[in-house]
Amino acid sequence: MNLKSNEPFWLLKNGLLASYPSLKSNESCDVLIVGGGITGSLIAHQMMKDGYNTIVIDKRELCNGSTSATTSMLQYEIDVPLYELIEKIGEKGAALSYKACSDAIDSIEKLTKLIRSDAGFKRKKSLYYASKKKDAEWLKKEFEARKNAGFDVKWLSADKVLEQFGFENTFGGILSKQGASIDAFRFAHELFIHNVKKGLKIFDKTEMAAVEYHKAFNLVTVESGFQIKAKKIIYCIGYESKNLIQENFVNLKSTYAIVSEIDKDKFKNIDSTLVWNTDDPYLYMRTTDDGRLLMGGEDEDFYNAEKRDAILDKKEKRIIKNLKRIKPDYQFYPDFVWAGTFGETKDGLPYISEHEKFKNSYFVLGFGGNGITFSVTGMEMASLFMKNKKHPLSRYFKFGR
Q: Which among 110, 140, 152, 375 is least surrounded, fewest beta carbons within 10 Å?
């Protein structure tokens, strides 16, 4: 019998890692973090490190939103190529943004060692290949931009891509030294558990219903009627921020992913490499820490969860068809297929900033394919915000930019 799960792979792989109570009393804190995913776990870790009395709430069980659907590819590359980003925001801001994502990978590795993580962090190279002949020209331009910015990159000809990775029908690509993968679902849970031992309070299945913004504090009322008095609120709610902020600052996208067992004899260096291409939407691949192959892509505009999930079979077939272009003889048997929703900004950058309509509050919204690495940058930025200090990236990540 061919059984296949339509649930996110990470949820089924890990099971229930921890459970927390819902809010059943009034509370007060220095910092209230709204959102218990990977971003919330990182920001909570930073707030606890900085010595703040911190509470986390989430309307679901922890990490059961976008974090359960992430592909957890840790890349310094942003969805907007560096040479294009330079044209949009200038060389300084573009280089700083790319470097921040690169530094974030190093920071995640240090964090995994600090908390003795079992989330399968693994250093990997990254192959960004041209899927069409016309893409090779601008991809070489991108290679030069990265090289000039100081990144450790090599240009591989189509023959070299075939030799090193066994991928046919490519037109060359950029091989980057910096990259990694992790099980972000498990890592987020580990960070929460680590900090609960240090005094962090977590309440899941606790939905924010209303906020009163005062001069020196905010008063949050949750659905059950209990209240939390917080000096500061940090919103780590990803694409759901669209429900809170009225202006059109992000486009919502649906993305699709599939996981299967892998015949490693038919791949070269796949365990040590993140792979993606120049298609729009792009195809991406990585292995998981338990030796499976994860592929994804076929992004499209998000309308509602029902419509997104109704075309899983169609998207699965198209992702496998895209794999066949570079591995014509490989037979892929999907074990897990799922969809997720993420935000895409016009410049590929996150929103990590104050917002004029929300007093005593900050937003850490790591949109795009770099949500996790942007959230690590958000740790440093939020730490400075709490001290009324600016960060070099503040002007590039602010609302209204």
A: 110
